[in-house]
Amino acid sequence: MTVTGIIKFSESKRKIYIDQEFAFVLYKGDIHKYGLEEDKELTEEVFEEIYKVLLPKRAKLRAMNLLKSRDYTAHQLQAKLLQGLYPPEIAKQAVEYVKSFHYVDDERYAIAFIRSNNVRKSRKRMVQDLLQKGISKEVVEKALQICEEDHDILDEDRQIALLLEKKGFHRETADQKELQRIYGFLMRKGFSQENVYRAIFP
């Protein structure tokens, strides 16, 4: 193996290329520590230490630091690590590590998301949003079931009524322009056409 490129990634980090292919990102201190230089051979021993010891440890710490500020789904957390140019298998290992301690829990995330968005988003929209966040359909369905059993999810008629109340909408006094505006607003929220129509058109 030959180091064929050491390219600036940030002020403190460099992208390392081995045999013409991108391998990983290291701090400048790491490069000095391991004696990496362009056009210089990289021993198997040094490569193994970087790839199997240094980077996995660093990725796990990065994942835990990210979780200090907010919750992530497993998919979101892995994407964040990949943004930092951690190799895919190392990013996956880090996510599995934090999942093993339940620092990342897609079901818990989905339940919290449903409970916090229950008034302002339709069931359909919440499902779409959770799927887009990388949570599996099975986990989303289980979270919905738990929320229903705990009476933490409203039916659409009640959701629509609360949104209309918040908007200060009164269908008895609304003109055609206002009716169309509210209709579009509710449809974009993902509510069924039948329920929206019944709620706003006299």
Defining key terms:
single chain; 202 residues; alpha+beta; Arc Repressor Mutant, subunit A; 4-stranded antiparallel beta sheet; 10 helices
List the helices and strands and how they pair.
Blueprint: E1 2-8, E2 13-18, E3 21-27, H1 28-34, E4 40-41, H2 44-69, H3 74-83, H4 88-100, H5 106-117, H6 123-132, H7 137-149, H8 156-167, H9 176-188, H10 193-200
Antiparallel strand pairs: 1-2, 1-4, 2-3
Summarize the structure in words:
- The chain is α+β, with helices and mostly antiparallel strands.
- The protein is built from ten helices and four strands.
- It has helices at 28-34, 44-69, 74-83, 88-100, 106-117, 123-132, 137-149, 156-167, 176-188, 193-200; strands at 2-8, 13-18, 21-27, 40-41.
- It has a four-stranded antiparallel beta sheet.
- Helix 2 crosses helix 4 (88-100), helix 5 packs across helix 7 (137-149) and helix 9 (176-188) packs antiparallel against helix 10.
- The longest helix has 26 residues, at 44-69.
- The protein is elongated, with a radius of gyration of 25 Å.
- The termini are far apart.
